[in-house]
Design goal:
The protein has 700 residues and is of the alpha+beta class. Helix 1 (38-46) crosses helix 4 (173-183) and helix 9 (543-560) packs across helix 10. A hairpin with a 2-residue loop joins strand 20 (404-408) and strand 21 (411-415). Residues 1-39 are annotated as: Disordered.
Length: 700
């Protein structure tokens, strides 16, 4: 698989001298992650009052979630693209039924035969799928499956509801799954355990998108099983927008040689069938023939909607639609369709037919409102997304006037030369830069506030002459905070110290494309808030080598149990920050950085170096820990860089630091959308610092 499984769920097939049908793992082999082992749990349950074998159980259903999320109190599984199935095993008899109680007993006979080898009485929940030649679940192939020649059948079990007279539904999910894992035969190739994965929800979702999965499921670890209930303790997050709708009729265009031109779809809203539009794509000839057979007994002279909808309405792309006749159907069949968005009035935009869902009842085709998952886990250990993510700012400066006056934090600003092009190849102007910093201000300011700045000014853009300016004594407005310093010649001068967006926009208006703060604040100037590892490649290094070095740095930090947070430099390298919370001096910080850099270099000696002098590095990638010194500056998170492409120094998830990452992935044109979507993922850098003494003791 493309994500590592949890140790508690990994299953390895081991060779045995003699294959035994129905061989199972000994319950005492592994310890479960909860307080007792599965064996002890079974012993505990065995003394409970026996519950009769259930005649039927409606499956527990997941609610739709608007987006993936990360929370340690939830586990994450694959959302299989198949038929939900409940299996009843009693005294050697097997019954497999769909969620609407249709029998799968004979249809998927290999599964039925597989269960005959089981020696337990149980009720199980899972999903039946067919694997196609590409190794992916294929719902269309599942519908057409008649024998093993039609594809590889799989039944993934994910829950245990009843076992040997014991009602399991009131137990926490993790405990039910641990016992389930113990009763599944190790050597079965069709009936399998559906694992949860050792990753975050957002990472798992991204991988599901890349792999072409239907989606993921998030389940609260302590959730009980609630038969027939659509619960918010289980959430489904889809990789594409789909819904189940009722087929209320079909149309046929005049002169068409097809069996039908489009299906007319409806969905129940407050008990009444509402029209949600036609779908005219996603069918081949065979699909149309099969659908027409299903339509035949359902044809009706009566429209199932309260009012006859405008099913042949002209649109922007079809101003003169062909004449079409309509045949109404009794509202009994459910179609799964994908779509892009929903237009005003509830009409689907760009829908496409996916499949006929014979396993779903028409009464289940209702409007499904997506849950905002953050409402469900605010009280867990998982930190909420930074509040600044909710700040939505629009542009400060209009696109036409070359000079504009704005009031910022009560002070009047004159922004001039706004038409001046700062990035000639891309055409980005000074106006674009100022608008970017205005929008990103809530995110970047925590990394600038109370930190002296060295301005790197490009008054004529990245191709013009540039210069550094430290002293702002003669140019500082009344409201600006200053921090004194003395030159080697004994001159008294002042750094500027940002406090709010006035200072940020002042710097940008002066042509400072990038923001370069100290690692420490004026409150504790000798104690940095973070330790830096700056991966600085030479012209002989590839960016893949930078990525590899970052990955090894993560490996070293993990071994030390030290958190590290990466960001693209926006130039040629990657920066890795370790939170210190101003608890240590620069000397202590630098020595700690040297320890990490040395270990990384030992692992990658062929193309890395920790030599301070460039001539001694011999063209190797420099693992720079000497940035951890007083008054040293580095481009801030979310800062623009004076480089082609207008790149941004963007905080990254570690999962993104892999082959394929490029410096220009995040730039002035797309950075704001990314930041609004993810929030400030770099925020932990400003949080609780590491316990350096504890880390060093662990190495002793």
């Amino acid at each position: 698989m493309w994500i590592s499984r949890k140790k508690s769920t990994a299953r390895k097939k081991t060779a045995a001298p003699e294959k035994k049908t129905g061989q199972r793992r000994s319950i005492s082999e592994n310890k479960a992650p909860f307080s007792s082992s599965p064996q002890e749990l079974l012993q505990h349950l065995s003394v409970q009052k026996k519950k009769p074998f259930p005649e039927s159980i409606s499956p527990m259903l997941a609610s739709l979630a608007s987006k993936p999320f990360n929370d340690p109190d939830w586990l994450y599984e694959i959302k299989w693209d198949g038929y939900r199935a409940i299996t009843f095993l009693q005294n050697g008899k097997v019954e497999i039924v769909s969620r609407n109680n249709k029998s799968f007993h004979e249809t998927y006979y290999p599964i039925n035969e597989g269960f005959k080898q089981w020696k337990v009485n149980a009720v199980l929940d899972g999903e039946i799928i067919v694997i196609n030649a590409k190794g992916k679940a294929d719902f269309a192939a599942l519908q057409e499956w008649r024998s093993e020649a039609d594809g590889e059948l799989r039944y993934y079990l994910f829950d245990l509801l009843w076992l040997e007279g014991m009602d399991m539904t009131a137990l926490p999910l993790t405990e039910r799954r641990e016992v389930l894992k113990e009763i599944i035969p190790l050597n079965d190739e069709i009936i399998l355990y559906s694992p949860d994965f050792d990753t975050t929800g957002t990472t798992f979702f991204k991988q599901a998108q890349k792999t072409g999965l239907e989606g993921i499921l998030a389940k609260k670890k302590d959730s009980i099983y609630e038969p027939g209930k659509r619960t918010r303790n289980w959430l489904k997050i889809k990789t594409e927008r789909t819904l189940e709708a009722i087929i209320a009729g079909y149309t046929l265009n005049e002169g068409s040689n097809k069996l039908f031109s489009s299906l007319l779809l409806g969905i129940y809203e407050n008990g009444e069938l509402q029209y949600i539009g036609p779908v005219g794509t996603g069918f081949n000839k065979k699909t149309q023939e099969e659908l027409m057979l299903a339509f035949k007994p359902l044809r009706s002279k009566r429209c199932p909607f309260k009012e006859i909808p405008e099913y042949n309405k002209p649109s922007r792309f079809r101003p003169n639609p062909p004449k079409a006749s309509v045949t109404w159907l009794k509202p009994a069949l459910v179609a799964e369709v994908s779509y892009q968005t929903v237009a005003p009035g509830g009409i689907l935009r760009h829908p496409s037919f996916k499949a006929l869902r014979t396993d779903k009842k028409a009464s289940e085709a209702k409007t499904e409102h997506a849950v905002k998952p953050e409402k469900l886990y605010k009280k867990t250990k998982q930190k909420e997304k930074d509040k600044t993510a909710k700040v939505v700012r629009k542009t400060l400066l209009n696109p036409t006037d070359a000079t504009q006056v704005r009031i910022i934090n009560g002070s009047s600003f004159t922004f001039n030369n706004l038409h001046k092009v700062f990035w000639p190849v891309e055409g980005y102007t000074k106006r674009d830069m100022l608008n970017y910093y205005y929008q990103v201000a809530p995110y970047i300011l925590p990394y600038l506030k109370n930190r002296p700045q060295s301005l790197n000014r490009f008054p004529n853009g990245i191709k013009g002459k540039s210069f550094y300016q430290k002293d702002l004594t003669a140019h500082a407005p009344e409201w600006m905070k200053l921090f004194p310093y003395t030159t080697s010649e004994g001159e008294h001068k002042n750094f500027m110290v940002p406090e709010d967006e006035r200072a940020l926009l002042f710097m940008a208006n002066a042509g400072a494309i990038e923001m370069n703060p100290w690692n420490s604040t004026i409150q504790k100037p000798d104690h940095p808030d973070w330790c830096l590892i700056d991966l600085d490649p030479s012209s002989k290094n590839s960016f893949e080598q930078v990525i590899q070095t970052a990955q090894v740095t993560k490996q070293v930090l993990d071994e030390l149990k030290v958190p590290g947070y990466p960001k693209s430099s926006g130039s040629t390298g990657i920066h890795i920050y370790i939170p210190l919370n101003a608890k240590y001096t620069y000397d202590e910080c630098q020595l700690f950085g040297k320890l990490i850099a040395t270990r990384v270099h030992e692992i990658l000696p062929d193309f890395t170096s920790i030599e301070r002098l460039t001539k001694n590095r011999k063209g190797k990638l420099y693992i720079d820990y000497l940035q951890n010194r007083p008054k040293a500056t580095l481009a801030a998170p979310y800062s623009l860089r004076p480089k082609p492409g207008a790149p941004v120094s963007m905080p990254l998830f570690w999962e993104e630091v892999k082959k394929g990452l490029t410096i220009t992935d995040w730039h002035i044109g797309n950075a704001i959308a990314r930041i609004r979507s993810e929030g400030d993922i770099f925020k932990p850098v400003l949080g609780k610092g590491i316990d350096m003494k504890k880390v060093l003791k662990g190495l002793a």
